[in-house]
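queue> pop job 88
queue> type: inverse folding (structure -> sequence)
queue> payload:
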């Protein structure tokens, strides 16, 4: 009978290989026990087979679970990309619409500044602010000499016209030496009286009597050569 020497039985290379194989199996088995997708993809014999053929732990994991994980990850990534693109497109469209709206407001502001007899006309999509000079006729309304005693009193004002509830009234064309062209506007209007200290006491009283700080309507004078109906049509777009 031939006996193996203790040196052959205790070969370091054989023991090292055995330890490496055992650790590899335990390591991969631990990975598979913590992942249902991996355990369902490969059996214990499959793992042993791949390890015996020299595959690393990472390679075995990829072989057994890679396709399922990659598919799920790909689907999730695709969904995230689609959502991100949708958000970008929505933001881009909103910014484009806002830019177009701003350009339209600026264009209409320029037109109205040239058409309405007022100073410093400014607009947003919500309201319009302008500084006209408003006039009233004040004096006795009866008697033979009443017409000769009527005075025209003017004062600088600031008007803020809210587009919510705004209604465009009658557009009146001017008559030479008789009346100016005008446009009637109704709605939520605030009026501020400017330069009242420059007026005589009786004129102040007349202005305060005729010009309300919260009028329900105003008549805007339209410059010569401008059709007041065209001004009304331009403002109608902003009525809310």
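queue> result:
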């Amino acid at each position: 009978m031939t006996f193996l020497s203790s040196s052959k039985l205790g070969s370091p290379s054989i023991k090292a290989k055995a330890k490496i194989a055992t650790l590899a199996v335990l390591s991969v088995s631990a990975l598979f026990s913590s992942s249902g997708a991996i355990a369902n993809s490969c059996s214990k014999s499959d793992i042993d087979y791949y390890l015996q053929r020299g595959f690393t732990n990472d390679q075995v994991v990829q072989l057994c679970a890679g396709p399922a994980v990659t598919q799920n990850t790909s689907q999730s990534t695709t969904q995230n990309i689609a959502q991100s693109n949708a958000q970008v497109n929505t933001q881009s469209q909103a910014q484009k619409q806002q830019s177009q709206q701003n350009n339209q407001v600026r264009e209409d502001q320029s037109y109205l500044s040239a058409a309405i007899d007022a100073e410093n006309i400014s607009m947003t999509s919500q309201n319009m602010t302008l500084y006209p000079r408003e006039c009233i006729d004040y004096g006795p309304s009866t008697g033979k000499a009443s017409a000769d005693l009527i005075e025209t009193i003017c004062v600088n004002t600031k008007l803020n016209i809210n587009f919510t509830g705004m209604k465009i009234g009658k557009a009146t064309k001017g008559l030479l030496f008789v009346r100016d062209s005008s446009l009637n506007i109704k709605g939520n209007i605030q009026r501020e009286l400017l330069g009242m200290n420059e007026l005589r006491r009786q004129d102040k009283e007349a202005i305060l009597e005729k010009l309300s700080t919260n009028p329900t309507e105003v008549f805007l004078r339209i410059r010569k050569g401008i059709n007041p109906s065209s001004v009304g049509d331009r403002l109608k777009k902003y009525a809310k």
